[in-house]
Amino acid sequence: MNEFALGFSVAALMKGVAITLVVTVGSSLVAIFLGLIVGLIRISPRWPLRWLAVIYIEFFRGTSLLVQLYLWFFVLPIFGIILSPWTVAILGVGMNVSGYGAELVRAAIQAVDRGQYEASIALNFPRIAMLRRIVLPQAIRSMLPAWGNLLIDLLKGTSLIFFITITELTTASKLAADATGNYLLFFAVALFGYYFIARALITPFVRWLERRFSRGFVREVLV
Amino acid sequence: MNDQTVRLERITKNYGTVDMPDNLNLDVAAKEKATSEPMVRFENVAKRYGTLTVLDKLNLDIARNEKVSIIGPSGSGKTTVLRMLMTLERINEGVIWVDGEPLTHMQKNGQMVTASDRHLRRVRGKIGMVFQHFNLFPHMTALQNCMEAPVSVLGLSKQEAEARAAELLDMVGLGDKKSHFPIQLSGGQKQRVAIARALAMRPKVMLFDEVTSALDPELVGEVLNVIRKLGAEHNLTMLMVTHQMGFAKEFSDRVCFFYGGKIAEQGPPDQLFSDPQNERTRQFLSAVLEAG
Amino acid sequence: MNIWDWSYVWEALPYIYRGAIVTVQATLLGFAIALVLGLVFALIRQSPNRYISTAMAEIVEFIRSTPLLLQVFFVYFVGPQFGVVIPAWSAGIGVLGIHYAAYCSECYRGGIENVEGGQWEACTALNLSKSRSWRAIILPQAIPPIVPSLGNYFISMFKDTPILAAIAILEMLQQAKNFGANNYRYIEAITMVGFFYLVFSLVASAIVQTVGFWLNRRYHLQ
Ligand SMILES: Nc1ncnc2c1ncn2[C@@H]1O[C@H](COP(=O)(O)OP(=O)(O)OP(=O)(O)O)[C@@H](O)[C@H]1O
Ligand SMILES: [Mg+2]
To answer: What is the mean pLDDT of residues C16-21?
Structure first.
């Protein structure tokens, strides 16, 4: 194998890692933001809003991620909406995951002890303040572990933008492997790259968040 | 006095369109009301869950500053009475009045209609409640638990709310536990924080639902002492569901015995406990006294 | 040009039908592998040998944190580098099965660990052999409660099959995309596939829920 090709491929792989990280962070933000909003709408007292949220959630969870990426990438242009591959990647992956995230938000909010709602009513909190100050802090704490898994799924999902021509880590490793013929090396490196991002970045980050959000109030998490 | 002007202000706020003369009439009317109207009135209130009638045509007046204990067997509807008053449950029939105005209903175009959320929230502000299982906010310290509602509901500044919360925590004997989280407190301490939290909203009526039932026996006393102190030092109307017959007897002005969703008997504690008229009351009391 | 043209729908239907058969076959075969292999993983994980169980746990963790697509590439392309050619179909279904076996093994583990400790003690007291205890006592209690979660992984796997297109397996979405590319019209074919996935997911999760509910009830009756 030629030294130049190898060096070149390693550089390309590093760039792939960077792109994967950018897309992961970008679509995580989209997923968290939309998941929170749709999850809250999902429990709104107004049924038309609730139904809109149900449709959103079922659409994004029910159709496959790759189908959604193709819809944004190949079908939207028919309506004159041409999105760049980057937009499709970040919004596409983010919105897909936000469907699952919204369900986590809904479940966590509904799992907050009924006594907390009753105390909030007895103290006369307006609905918004009750959600923001009493219910959400508790719900967020309890849904964080599930979000940790979801963000790892999201990271894995970013590999599918292989199909829409962005050279993220999977694509980069495929190109490098094709160029050098050394499939074992580059795919193994890429696999460990994902493993590293998942277990050395995402998991500890979510653990840290868990500790922050449970600051002081649940003993078992502290020890 | 001062209280009265506050009241007048509130009335003008609620009926913002009235002009001066009417306003003065209202003042007079309000004064009259303030002394004669009961603080809480249940008028033919019924509550059903599906086909199960939990409360049937309940009529109950509670005077200003009166301390009323509710006793009765399990399932007789005691908790339901408090929860309806706290608007945690809707009622199916009748009207509940608080401080001279309807709670469950409101005037609209000269008719009584079901209360809107706004109306509920305004009238509900006069009532505070302490729960059997505390329901403290686990992610906030004792102090924050007592500050949260005054800040986000009453609009107090952080400093004012903190001063008020600190004073109340001192009053319930927890001045040194202000920065403890609920998980770090004993049951009795949690319940005292819950009392302080409710008081921080300056309610006129306080509801206690078996507030000592979830406590270890040796912690019951400290909570009852706080309630005693409240009764002695504050102008509060108190309505409590309790299984502590001794406390009900000593503390309350009136005891109501509930049976099957009705008030089977009520009267001053001395009379009700020593000379019950109703056969059910007699049975209940002897069963309770035997057990405890 | 119409936004939606039914004639394309009829034209695309045979292609999508062909793809759908591949998709369904891949899901069924892949899930069969996942169920069996997942149980094997879970049992190895329960091994009394600490090294074996830790190694298994790490492997499962690794499989679960890396993308299915890359795993498919790995198996499909690395073999030929060393002279072992694995057909796309075997590689695709095999990896699908292994990937979901890792998830299923976690389900099984949850189920196994939820069986009361007393059950093992009873097996010992009755002098049952180890394998007999597993087969007759532990697994029959461990598996029914996790059927709904296994069902959800079945649905997830179904939605992951389009990844097989990367190694030239003509599943449903790839057929739709090829049809689109040939006719310069994507909307009908891709929408149809999306619709198909949606209907499948909704129906399948309704079934999973009903089965879970039914199992639950049976359980409380016991
Ligand atoms: N949400 C509900 N749905 C259906 N029935 C209910 C509900 N809440 C209460 N009930 C019924 O209403 C009746 C009165 O309940 P309540 O809680 O007021 O009793 P209680 O007098 O407080 O009893 P206890 O001493 O056990 O607390 C009971 O028969 C109970 O089963
Ligand atoms: Mg009760």
So the answer is: 91
Instruction: Look up the CATH number of the domain holding residue A122.
Output: 1.10.3720.10
Position B6 scores a pLDDT of 41
Confidence of residue C136 (pLDDT cuts 50, 70, 90): confident
By Cβ distance, the residue of A70, A177, A190 closest to C173 is A70
Distance of CA C36 to the CA centre of its chain: 11
Pocket of ligand 1 (CB under 6 A): B 49, 52, 54, 72, 74-80
3-class SS shares of chain C: helix, strand, coil, % to 5: 85, 0, 15
CB B58 within 8 A of CB B94: yes
pLDDT tens for A13-30 read 999 999 999 999 999 999
ipTM: 0.90
Task: Kindly list the domain boundaries of chain C, sorted by start residue.
Answer: 6-218
C6 exposure class (CB count in 10 Å sphere: 0-12, 13-18, 19+)? exposed
Q: Which CATH architecture has domain C6-218?
A: Orthogonal Bundle (1.10)
Residues of A in contact with C195 (CB under 8 A): 63
Domains observed in chain B = 3-126+203-291 (3.40.50.300)
- Specify if A137 maps to a domain: yes
Instruction: Give yes or no for residue B23 having a pLDDT over 60.
Output: no
C-beta neighbour count of B32 within 10 angstroms: 11
Point out the residues of chain A with pLDDT beneath 70.
1-4, 215-223
The residue in chain A having the minimum alpha-carbon distance to the alpha carbon of residue C200 is A62
User: Could you tell me the two tokens for B169?
Assistant: 């925590």
H-helix or E-strand spanning residue C35: helix C6-45
Q: Is B43 in contact with B59 (CB distance < 8 Å)?
A: yes
Whether the CB of A118 is below 8 Å from some CB of chain C: the reply is: no
Pull the structure tokens for residue B201: 């909203």
